[in-house]
Amino acid sequence: MKGFTKKDELAGQDDVEFLGTLKSWHDAAKKNRQVFDWQWYLYHNYYQGNHYIQFNKKTFQIVNPPRPRGQVRFTVNKIYSTCRAIRNFATSYRPKWEVVATSTSEENINSGKKSEEALDYYYDYLNIPKLNKGVVLYAIKYGIGFYQYGWDEEATGLDNQEGEVSVWIRDPFDVYLDPSGMETGDIQNCRFIDIAVSMPIQDIIDNPHYKTIDPDEISGDNKRAASAFKETMITNQYSNASDSSKELKRVIAHETLYKKRINSKKKKLDPDLWTTEVWIATWIEGHLLRNDSTEFNKYNLIPIASDNNPNEIYGEGYIKNLIPIAKVLNRLESQIVEYNNTVNRGRIIADKGAGVSKITNETAEIIQKKQGFDVREFKMSGLAPDIQNQIGRLSDYHKEISGVEEAFMGKVPEGIKSGVGLESLKAQTANNLQDLKDNLEEALAKLGEGILEMIANKYVASRTIRAVDNTGKQAPFSIKGQVGVEPNEKLPQDTYVIGNQNQVKVIIGSGLAYTREGRITRLDKLLEQKVIGPKEYLKGIEFGNVEEVVEEARLAKFDEAMFDKLGQAPPPGMAPGGEGMPPAGMEGQPPPTGAPPGGQPMPQGIAQGQPEGDNWLKLADDEN
C-alpha cells in the first residue's frame, strides 16, 4: 500500500476534521488488537511468576483469587529461565556489519569499508547492545518488538557538534498498526502507524515543534498507557496515586505516522510520477499539535518477530505454548508440598470424647487423653509414584516445545562427558531458535541502513570516528554526509563520504561453535591446515595480550633458528667431527702463514691483518 492520495478523506480537512480522522484510525487499530492485548498481558504475568491470575467474567477484570485454606500455591517459573536463555543466546555475539559498495571504484569500496567501521563504532556509541536485549525480550514475550531511529536535534554528538543519530525501542503495547496492513505481513504496507505513549503535560507545552496551547485547555490525568491491560500492568507494579499538581499531570500523546502519495510531475503534459512521503501527526485528546512531513519515504520503525508466520507481522512468541505445561507443573509440585506438610505435621485418630490435650514442658510434649479412649497416629500411604514420572514428562515437553536444552541453560546433562556432546546439544538448540536469530540479523541490517541514511542527510560537517584496527591500536578517521559535500570538493586525507544508498548485511555469531571446547577444536584444525595464523587462533580462543604473545613467539623462534645456524659451523679449535685440533705449529699441523722464524705459532686468534679474537656478539648481529 502506497498511502493516502488527494482522493482520500485527508484532503481539504481542517484541524478538527483531521483530528477526528486520526482518532478513528486509532480506535480501529485498538479494536483490531484487543485479543493480542489480553494475550500479552497473560504472557507478561507468567513471565513474572504470576501463574494464578484469572479473568472475572462478571466484573470483566483480571483478578488474583485468594488462596483457599490449606491449599499450597507453589510456582515453578521455568518460563522466566527459558526466556532468559533464549535472550542471552540471541544477544551473546557481536554483529558483523558488511556494507556493499555501490560501485567497483576504489573510492566507493573504501567508503563501504569505512561505513562498516562506523557502524561498529555506533553499535557501542548508541548503546545498541542494551537495546538488543530489550527488543529481543519483547519478541520472546509478545512475539514482536520494534526498533525506531531518528535525529535528535537537542543531543550533543561526535566532536561536540549539535544533533546526533538516535536509536530507541518501542513497547508493542504502544504501537497500533493499520489493520489492513497487518494482513500483508509487511509493516511498510500499513497506511498508518499510531504510537500512543503517556507524556507529561509540561513536555508538550515546552516542545518547540508543537503548536502553542494554553495549559488550562489540557485536562491531564494519571493514565500511564492507552492500552487498558498495560495500564493494569503498570499500576500493579507502581503506585498510581493522584496528584493535583499540573506539572505532574500526564496525558496520552499520539504520534501517528502515515504515508502520502505525492504527484511529482512538474508540467501539465508530464506523466504522473507518484512518490511516497511519510508524514507525522502528533495529537492529544481535543488538540492537533502538528502535522508535518518527514525526510523518510518509509517508516523508521523496524519490527522484529520471534518467528515467521506467512502474511503476519506478529510472531507466536515463546510463552504461549508453555503456559499449559506451567499450570500442570505448578499443581503437581504444590500437591507434593501439601503432602509433605501433612505428613510432617502428622494426623491423629482419637475416639470422640477422648479429651485429648497437649502439655508442653522444657523436655518434651505430653499428650493427655481420658482413660479408656483410643488415640493413635494415622499412618498415611506414600506419595503416588506416577507424580514424579509426570513431572519428568512435563520437563521433556517443556524442552521440546521451547527448543531449549539443558546445555543451553548452563547445565551439563547427565551422561554427557565430552565437549563434543555438549556442542551437539547447543547446536541443536541454536537450530531451533534460528528464526529469532535470522530476524534479529535482518532488523539490525535495516537499522544499519537507517543510521547511514541519517548520517548522509544530517552530517554537514565531518565528524571523527575513533575506530580500532585489528592490532588493537587507535585508527581514527572522519566521515561526512553526502548533504555536506560540494561538487568537485577535495576531501582531506582519511575523510570519507557516507551516501544515501547503502545495502547492509549483518551476521550474528562466531561461525565456529557454541561452546569453548568446540571452538578450540575447530580452530586447531584450521591452524593445522594453515587456513589461519597464530594471531587469529589466539583471538578465536579469547587469549589476552595477543600482540605481545605473537611478538615474543616470533623473536623466540628467530633466536632458535639463529643458534641452530651457528651450531652448524664448529667453533675455533674444533674439528668438523667435534674433536679438538692440535694447535698450529705442533706435530701433525703445519705452521700458519706468517709464523715467526723457529716455527713458534702466534697466539690463537692473532693473524696478520686480523683483530684479536672472534667477536661473537658481532657475528650474532651480522646473522640477524
Q: What share of the residues lie within helices?
A: 25-40%
Oligomer state equals single chain
Strand content: 15-25%
Radius of gyration from CA coordinates = 38 Å
Mean pLDDT: 80
Largest sheet entry: 5 strands, antiparallel
Helix-and-strand structural type: alpha+beta
Shape: flat
Distance between the termini: 72 Å
Number of strands: 19
Spans of at least 5 consecutive residues whose pLDDT stays below 50 are 510-514, 597-612
What count of helical segments does DSSP give? 16
Give the strand order, joined by hyphens, for the main sheet.
Answer: 6-7-8-9-10
Topology:
Layout (H helix, E strand, L loop, with lengths): L14 H18 L1 H15 L5 E3 L4 E3 L14 H14 L4 E5 L5 H20 L2 H15 L1 E13 L5 E9 L4 E3 L1 H4 L9 E9 H6 L21 H10 L12 E14 L10 E11 L2 E7 L7 E5 L17 H23 L2 E3 L6 E4 L4 E4 L6 E3 L8 H17 L16 H14 L1 H25 L4 E3 L11 E5 L13 E4 L4 E5 L8 H13 L5 H7 L5 H21 L49 H8 L1
Parallel strand pairs: 17-18
Antiparallel strand pairs: 1-2, 3-19, 4-5, 4-11, 6-7, 7-8, 8-9, 9-10, 12-15, 13-14, 16-17
Describe this structure in words.
The protein has helices at residues 15-32, 34-48, 78-91, 106-125, 128-142, 179-182, 201-206, 228-237, 323-345, 386-402, 419-432, 434-458, 516-528, 534-540, 546-566, 616-623; strands spanning 54-56, 61-63, 96-100, 144-156, 162-170, 175-177, 192-200, 250-263, 274-284, 287-293, 301-305, 348-350, 357-360, 365-368, 375-377, 463-465, 477-481, 495-498, 503-507. Strand 9 (274-284) and strand 10 form a beta hairpin. The longest helix is centred in the C-terminal third of the chain and has 25 residues, at 434-458. It has a five-stranded antiparallel beta sheet with strand order 6-7-8-9-10. It has a three-stranded antiparallel beta sheet with strand order 5-4-11, covered by helices on one side. A three-stranded mixed beta sheet has the order 16-17-18. It has 624 residues and is of the alpha+beta class. Helix 2 (34-48) packs parallel to helix 8, helix 3 crosses helix 5 (128-142) and helix 9 runs antiparallel to helix 10 (386-402).
